[in-house]
């Protein structure tokens, strides 16, 4: 089934949406079923998709008291960039499926909110159009068979003003996403990855693989290895962020090789079904990395309390993906801005109620415990 370029939208008062679940409910009721499944779905039986939420729900914060929180801030820095909160918008492909303005609308919402926008290599808007919104932008890459095209992508990203390169390393092949295979989900003719030359296979699915699986098989290089980080470093002066790390040994090696940041991520449950949740993997990664590089986390963040939990578990910042898409699909830039304002408000509330004046206090003084962990200090 070929998706519509933009889903039907419903009249809804954005001020009536009081949490990210409200945004998701409103957006998914307005979207075509195949597009909703493309965004919401995970790989296999979606065990890891569910585990991302379960793990965060199990974490319990141990707040501090008798601290003056009359002035409370969520501001922080991420790779030297000042942001209003420790939240970035994760890379997501083909955002013009959600709204005609696509990436430009979501990036503009990020610019207004003062947070970093991570532009997917598979964006349906150019890097230049994205950075023209004024958003602090990072460029995300997959490892391509065509090294010349990768070099050109890096040059275009740098020329457009992107501030970091995010190499996603957990997609040697695309996970088997059954919802997309069953629906025969493909892109409409008006949508493509405009920063790539030749979106091979992405409009043609089959009974055994989705169009996106076919595209990945034809264009992504599964031979990606540690030595390729040196190739990347030689071709860009931008900070390098490695996304998709879960094992502490991999985190250790990446830090030793001098990456600037890691993103603890299982791709939102869309790759290896049965993989550990990001929240469960995060503490061990932070422990082995120490302060050698920043450690971010994504997959499953749905509230300001989740943000504070991740910070207390060792994250420098977090990324949100699907919630931003829901807001974009619901009301374009205004809907995405509502999502970012809700999570900022919730994060400020959670910081203050944890007895902290800012993000640094959360890192230094708030404990985050799994529900089954005994209380011993």
Automatic annotation (TrEMBL):
Query: Could you say which residues form the signal peptide?
Result: none
Q: What general EC class does the enzyme of this chain belong to?
A: oxidoreductase
Q: Which UniProt keywords apply?
A: Flavoprotein, FMN, Oxidoreductase
Q: Pinpoint the FMN hydroxy acid dehydrogenase domain residues.
A: 12-372
Cofactors: FMN
Out of the domains of life, which is the source? Bacteria
A single GO molecular-function term is: oxidoreductase activity
What Enzyme Commission number does this protein have? Answer: 1.-.-.-
The UniProt entry's sequence similarity note says:
Belongs to the FMN-dependent alpha-hydroxy acid dehydrogenase family.
Protein name (record): Alpha-hydroxy acid oxidase
Species name? Lentzea rhizosphaerae
